[in-house]
């Protein structure tokens, strides 16, 4: 149980509802900022404005998955009010108050480090990233179906990167009958790609590998699908870039060449907000329980 734990949930999307539901069920005291248009009430949760938060009593500040905007603005789909997160807010919390977000950005990192606060980036955890890969892959399949006029089965699908997302993407598309090739830079990844029955290649060979692909799915958060690479792709190629903004594709060049290239951020929150919210809620609960013991 989380009896006695006080947490503020500031903004967010439908995924935060699962967090609220779970923390409330475990008897935490919750203060909800940026939820004034949410009809649903939760026992033990009080809606309020940022200025009214009992900052000195909080054990946790839970921010949206993206943390904040580049200047501290907090996204919320449940309010029209503007919310800005600042270092001053953190300075007023007690030393043990922990900040939680999915990812961070330079602004948020500066705020938390200047205020000397523990900041847990949930999406940096392997378990969260692996669970989150499941709805990400489902969203990728949806996008490929929506934006092509051929089946995944028998098509040539290239996956760039063999981390937590790339691994699941490659395996799932292969299970759907695609011919999957995977680009990586580490020899152990090349070995695993081979073992799994996909066509491996080193990323420095990317330019030479794209001439017969139908779909290219990027998971590498670095400029990898350059103009040189795009110029060697067939004109019908679809590029789905899953890497965090700004992605790894030269989108301007792709457009110039008439190749459809789509940056597809936040798929779990789009295709499965309930599941994606539960993934966050489960790990957050465990962390709060560990911290309170
Ligand atoms: P990950 O486990 O860290 O995997 C990243 C992969 O990219 C690894 O294979 C890594 O290779 C490779 N890589 C990184 N930098 C590289 C570079 N400069 N050159 C060549 N290869 C490089 O990350 P992940 O969890 O799979 O996530 C991948 C990306 O997808 C992230 O940007 C993440 O934010 C994003 N994401 C997007 C969605 C969505 O809905 N679109 C959902 C989840 C995650 P090494 O192992 O050799 O370093």
Which regions have little confidence, pLDDT < 50, spanning 5+ residues? none
Could you describe the largest sheet, including whether it forms a barrel? Answer: 6 strands, parallel
Helix and strand composition category? alpha/beta
Oligomer: single chain
Shape: elongated
What radius of gyration results from the CA coordinates? 21 Å
Query: Secondary-structure element sequence?
Result: EHEEEHEHEHEHEHEHEHEHEHH
Biggest sheet strand line-up: 3-2-1-4-5-6
Mean pLDDT: 96
Distance between the termini: 11 Å
Instruction: State the helix count.
Output: 11
In helices, the fraction of residues equals 25-40%
Q: Which ligands are bound?
A: NADP nicotinamide-adenine-dinucleotide phosphate
Strand portion: 15-25%
Describe the 3D structure.
The chain is α/β, with parallel strands linked by helices and 293 residues long. It has helices at 15-25, 87-91, 106-114, 126-146, 164-175, 187-195, 206-209, 227-231, 251-257, 267-271, 273-292, and strands at 6-10, 29-33, 45-48, 60-62, 98-101, 119-121, 156-160, 179-184, 199-202, 215-218, 238-241, 260-263. The protein contains eleven helices and twelve strands. α4 packs antiparallel against α11 (273-292). The N and C termini lie close together (11 Å). NADP nicotinamide-adenine-dinucleotide phosphate (NAP) binds next to α4, α5 and α10. NADP nicotinamide-adenine-dinucleotide phosphate binds next to α4, α5 and α10.
